[in-house]
Amino acid sequence: MGRKALSIDKLVMDLILTDDASGKKKLAAKIRAIAYKKGIYPSSIHDYYMARGRNEFSGSTVPAINLRSLTYDLARAIFRVGRKNNAKAFIFEIAKSEMGYTNQPPFEYSAVILAAAIRENYAGPVFIQGDHFQANLKKFQENADKEMIGLRALITEAVEAGFYNIDIDSSTLVDLSKPKVKDQQYLNYEVCAKLTQFIRRIQPKGITISVGGEIGEVGHQNSTPEDLRAFMEGFKKRLRKGLSGISKISIQTGTSHGGVVLPDGSIAQVKLDFDTLKNLGEIARKEFGLGGAVQHGASTLPEEAFHKFAECEACEVHLATQFQNMIFDSRHFPADLKARIYEWLKINAASERKEGETDDQFLYKARKKALGQFKKEIMGLAQETRDAISGEIENKFDFLFKQLNAVNNAGLVDKYVTLKRVISRKRHDHPGVVHDGEGAD
């Protein structure tokens, strides 16, 4: 291992292990500066999706991968898979809720991803995404202004950290008790449009952040063409004229986050409605010029299902829980650490246990909540242990890239995605950019 590799490894470990927020941001800024010098740029996938909406290419699905643990090691594995498959259209994402229970704030998450790119000698755009920036229905009903202020603060923090892809999830506000579909979707498109306008106001000059909307909350009833048209028509009327809108739309097709857990801890087979995915994606492209429909909660589907996403022209698929499962269930994951995690959960997550749940069901659903508490111990595992676990998951990444036909797209990404360097400014100032090659350090 060379001196440069050891240096970036140490920077990452210092970043992950420090509890000092100010120190964390300084380390993140240092990593980002190194990334720019190496030709690595946090980027937006907006123009790539808009080209897809114009039918300039088709037949592939972008994997959007949530890394909840061993983030540095797994991101390195993804960059290796990308290089092996001549691919650049893949997204690293983390949800609002995941930032909390995995203890990965935006500045840390983006810096770790960029460090992985440096370590693997990657060059080009890196797509980092805020997943499920979600409005809480109960809090919104109690105080809508306060909930919106919180969402704007989260978006601001994420954009400052290099998240140039933001998925707004106001589908939680859909009111199915109303008889008219437009009225059901009203708060959804209203909030999505307001937050899109906010994003356009704070985005770095020269970068159009990719914004995603959502019409069906995952785990609830399947989306319909009427839902999509009602949302999009309302959104377009509400969005200020001249502003870029959303680039994609998330829909519900029968999945749930993490899958449905059976009493023995196994995952129930899900019947995913690929016809809905195909039909709504086609409407999204042809009628509204979007990149297409997005599928959430897909990582625990059977392997034989994944090739169907590209066949149905899904523009993006979100993958999370299965990689977490592969970490916990790897034969290389220390049994004593897993036992301590489970004992901690039985005490500290006891309130989340539902009546009648078996230990297997409870621990499967709750164990993600221990990842932040045990982050330092997991990242402190011997390098050979982390390499063995990430090697197993790397094979899964490679399989998924091939099944989604997310391969040989480097040329398309280079064609549509412009690399821009963002100059950090004081908080609340509008960040600026310089084009590649201008004002470089």
Put the structure in a nutshell.
The chain is an alpha/beta fold and 441 residues long.
Output the CATH class name: Alpha Beta
Strand order of the largest sheet: 2-3-4-5-6-7-8-9
- The helix tally amounts to 18
What shape does the CA trace take? globular
Q: Would you give the CATH topology?
A: TIM Barrel
Mean pLDDT: 91
Helix content: 40-55%
CATH architectural arrangement: Alpha-Beta Barrel
Strand residue content = 5-15%
* Count of discrete domains: 1
Identify the CATH homologous superfamily.
Answer: Aldolase class I
**Through-space gap between termini:** 27 Å
Total strands: the figure is: 11
Decide which structural class fits the backbone. Answer: alpha/beta
What is the CA-atom radius of gyration, in angstroms?
A: 21 Å
- Sheet of most strands: 8 strands, parallel, barrel
What series of H and E elements makes up the topology? HHEHEHEHHEHHEHEHEHEHEHHHHHHEE
Indicate the low-confidence ranges by residue numbers. 426-441
Written account of the structure:
The protein is α/β, with parallel strands linked by helices and 441 residues long. It has a single domain, classed as TIM Barrel. The chain is 49% helix and 12% strand. It has 18 helices and 11 strands. α1 packs antiparallel against α6, α8 packs across α9 and α10 runs parallel beside α11. It is globular. The C terminus is likely disordered.
